[in-house]
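stage 2 :: seqdesign
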């Protein structure tokens, strides 16, 4: 704590912080906000950063950088949550999880507070009385929607300033019968307001209601022999029907809802949202968040709800989630309080909504893969990254073959190791290998790494494997860890006569590299292609090891217990795992909650299950 608040000053500051709900801001030596958090009891929460021994890795990295603590007291947790989201979006703190590209997505803005509303594209939502729709994520989709509105709904095309009706002559669209002429004072305010209401119905996806209104107006105009006006309504109906034909029907009812699912991969999470309006899939978006803490799926879902729906407009009354947020009651009531209406958060266990959740989860996974391998597919960048690695790490040759090793276990249980291989900067998945630790008892990552590397290079130097992928030697070895794991790797390589292979440890906390025989670490530039390549390789090794560990652990912990309970067969076991995810969650659930989550299960079986747990 040498470069931040002194111990005595910390104690003084903590005593001054009130025991009330609110938001706290951690600042660095330059006064920059590096973290924003909310708390039910401010003093207790802030104190935990300086007293707890079990902080997440990134937060442990942050604490020594804290030079000042500010806080804002609120009247309730709801206010604290809303304020936290606002401050995070304003300060973009380094140590808060933020969705990338969140603010670049375009919205459509309808200036309903003006006498003659305009339809505009914007990238920032402000509390100015306008209605906002979006975000629009498909390339050009917001512009296309505005173009269609201007073609068929007669609103003024003026963008730069409100319409005052004082223009000397109407714009060209007026003479093409695509505008009511409000800019030149020729529009009837009542007719213009009716056109605005039609646009709002269109943007809200209420196409059935809008089509019915337009159809009545068309028939009325035809009866009055106003054939030009009837043709206008006919064209509007046709444009709406064309859009509906391009939208997929996903629900038998005309419901409005958003679907949110996630996918985890290394240090990132992909978030997929499906937008359902009138039972039709009208759009989707994909966001990526870099995980700052060791966040659970429920925490990631909560971050998504806070950032997507607090401070925004036009959200549906139902949001369907893959996982329940950690503070589901707080976030649901906060959303309802912010939007002044009922909003339901739902985690389905069966039916069409569960199928939509699964579809969103698959798209979240594929979105992460696209992001990762879009970069990996660019040969020029990969080559540049390898050449940069050669220069920065002073390697004898360009590292065309890189191997990375990681260990995954919980207190030594179900320990596994992973080996991933990148050739010419791209993953060689057919050469990935997984190792189940056999000769180490208890949580000893160093000896686990020794076992994995010994098994790998024993094969590399054996004539039996010389002609296989095991016989290929790397140009560079990356060990996921610090100096301890690196020292083990050096010993193993030397024992097989392979001490000439460059090996480095990559510590995730500061993204620093350790080299054998060098006391200080190597820090690659944060924006360098070389560091990006190493991060991708390291994250891939972590993902590969963690996936194997989880599969072993899940089979052992969930399967073994559930298999012993009479009345729980494969289908019910699968339903329990899907609904709760872990033994601890099943143990915490009430009998009624389990019966509600698993279709057809009887009370006696649930009681036996609870007893077994």
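stage 2 :: out
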């Amino acid at each position: 704590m040498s470069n931040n608040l002194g111990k005595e000053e910390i104690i003084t500051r903590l005593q001054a912080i009130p025991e009330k709900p609110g938001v706290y801001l951690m600042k660095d030596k330059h006064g920059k906000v590096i973290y924003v958090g909310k708390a039910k009891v401010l003093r207790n929460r802030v104190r935990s950063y300086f007293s707890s021994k079990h902080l997440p890795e990134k937060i442990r990295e942050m604490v020594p950088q804290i030079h000042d603590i500010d806080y804002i007291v609120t009247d309730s947790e709801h206010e604290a949550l809303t304020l936290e989201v606002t401050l995070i979006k304003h300060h973009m703190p380094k140590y808060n999880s933020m969705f990338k590209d969140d603010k670049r997505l375009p919205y459509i803005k309808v200036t309903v507070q003006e006498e003659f509303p305009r339809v505009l594209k914007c990238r920032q939502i402000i509390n100015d009385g306008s209605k906002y729709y979006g975000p629009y994520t498909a390339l050009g989709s917001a512009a296309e929607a505005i173009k269609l509105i201007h073609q068929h709904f007669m609103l003024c095309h003026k963008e730069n300033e409100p319409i005052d009706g004082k223009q000397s002559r109407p714009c060209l669209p007026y003479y093409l019968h695509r505008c009511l002429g409000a800019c030149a004072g020729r529009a009837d305010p009542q007719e213009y307001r009716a056109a605005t209401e039609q646009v709002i119905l269109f943007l809200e996806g209420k196409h059935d209601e809008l089509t019915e209104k337009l159809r009545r107006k068309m028939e009325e105009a035809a009866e009055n022999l106003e054939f030009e006006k009837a043709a206008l309504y006919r064209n509007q109906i046709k444009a709406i029907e064309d859009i509906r034909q391009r939208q997929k029907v996903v629900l038998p009812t005309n419901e409005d809802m958003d679907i949110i699912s996630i996918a985890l991969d290394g240090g990132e999470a992909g978030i997929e949202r499906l937008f359902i309006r009138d039972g039709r899939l009208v759009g989707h978006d994909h966001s990526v968040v870099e995980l700052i803490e060791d966040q659970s799926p429920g925490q990631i879902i909560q971050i998504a709800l806070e950032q997507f729906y607090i401070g925004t407009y036009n959200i549906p009354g139902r949001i369907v989630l893959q996982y329940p947020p950690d503070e589901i009651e707080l976030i649901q009531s906060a959303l309802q309080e912010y939007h002044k209406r009922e909003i339901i958060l739902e985690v389905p266990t069966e039916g069409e909504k569960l199928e939509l959740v699964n579809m969103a989860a698959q798209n979240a996974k594929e979105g992460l893969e696209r992001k990762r391998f879009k970069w990996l597919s660019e040969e020029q960048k990969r080559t540049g990254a390898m050449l940069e690695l050669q220069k920065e790490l002073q390697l004898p040759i360009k590292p065309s073959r890189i191997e990375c090793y990681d260990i995954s276990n919980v207190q030594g249980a179900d320990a596994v190791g992973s080996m991933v291989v990148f050739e010419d900067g791209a993953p060689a998945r057919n050469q990935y290998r997984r190792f189940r630790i056999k000769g180490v008892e208890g949580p000893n990552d160093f000896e686990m790494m020794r076992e994995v590397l010994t098994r790998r290079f024993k094969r590399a130097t054996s004539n039996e494997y010389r002609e296989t992928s095991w016989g290929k030697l790397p140009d560079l070895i990356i060990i996921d860890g610090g100096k301890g794991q690196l020292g083990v790797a050096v010993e193993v390589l030397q024992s097989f006569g392979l001490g000439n292979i460059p090996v480095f440890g990559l510590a995730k906390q500061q993204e620093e590299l350790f080299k054998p025989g060098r006391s200080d670490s190597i820090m690659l530039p944060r924006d360098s292609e070389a560091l990006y390549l190493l991060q991708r390789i390291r994250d891939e090794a972590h993902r590969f090891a963690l996936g194997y560990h989880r599969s072993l652990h899940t089979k052992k912990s969930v399967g073994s217990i559930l298999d012993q309970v009479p009345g729980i067969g494969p289908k019910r076991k699968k339903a329990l795992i899907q609904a709760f995810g872990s033994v601890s969650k099943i143990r915490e659930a009430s009998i009624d909650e389990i019966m509600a989550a698993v279709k057809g299960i009887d009370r006696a079986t649930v009681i036996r299950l609870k007893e077994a747990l």
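stage 3 :: structure notes
- The chain has a mean pLDDT of 82.
- Residues 529-562 form the longest helix (34 residues).
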